[in-house]
# Entry
Amino acid sequence: MRARTLGVLAAAAVLTGLTAAPAGAATEPELHLPVIRSGVEHAGLNVVCPDQDWQLVKSSLFTAPVTLKSYPGSPTWGYGTGYLVKDLKAGSKHTVSYGCGPVTRTTQVTVQPPETIGEVGLKLDPSSGRPGDAVKLVRRCDKRNKPNTEPVSAALDSVWYQGGNPQDSNFSAKVKADVKPGRYPVTIRCGAVSKSVFFTVLGSPGHQQPPPPPPATGGGQVKVKPVGGVETGGGDLG
# Structure
């Protein structure tokens, strides 16, 4: 009688198109990860997992595995923050591991160059001076750009931050006491952009510039080594 009842139920299932779900069906996880850029300190990420049994998110991108948890309103989405390793190089590739329950998946991520937000510029006041003179510098770089660096030059010493706003930063500096007369680049880094302007170190009062070298024998011209740089003059903020 029992065998006949089971047979009837099985036949009814076939006739009605019903099938039993396999026991322990795996849930496929879905990773949402933002673009990873060098110079960025952290990145928010999430994994969709209906069973809410998220695995740790692991990668050489992060200083430690990322723990996920849900928030009211989206319980199947596990959110977390990955703190990125310092000095990640643009173009480097990293494997990211994530999962739901027993299901583990991996994906490859390529680190992108920093993104530059807004205008970048550098202005010097004055754009020339003698050893020991004071110089004011204004760097235009939205502070959301990473990295953003203070002005650097072989001609300047004691560069100090003097305040500013989220876009413009003011610095003060002095011309190095032992620097030789000449033109020197002053450089900043703002996100993906590196920008330079020139500062001219003047000789001390009464300093005589050395005479130009004599013409080369044989009628040839004297070779002059070019000076590299992005801009001339005292710079701009445009």
About this structure: The mean pLDDT is 83. Residues 120-205+231-235 form a domain with the Immunoglobulin-like fold (CATH 2.60.40.10). The longest helix spans residues 2-16. The first strand starts at residue 30 and ends at 32.
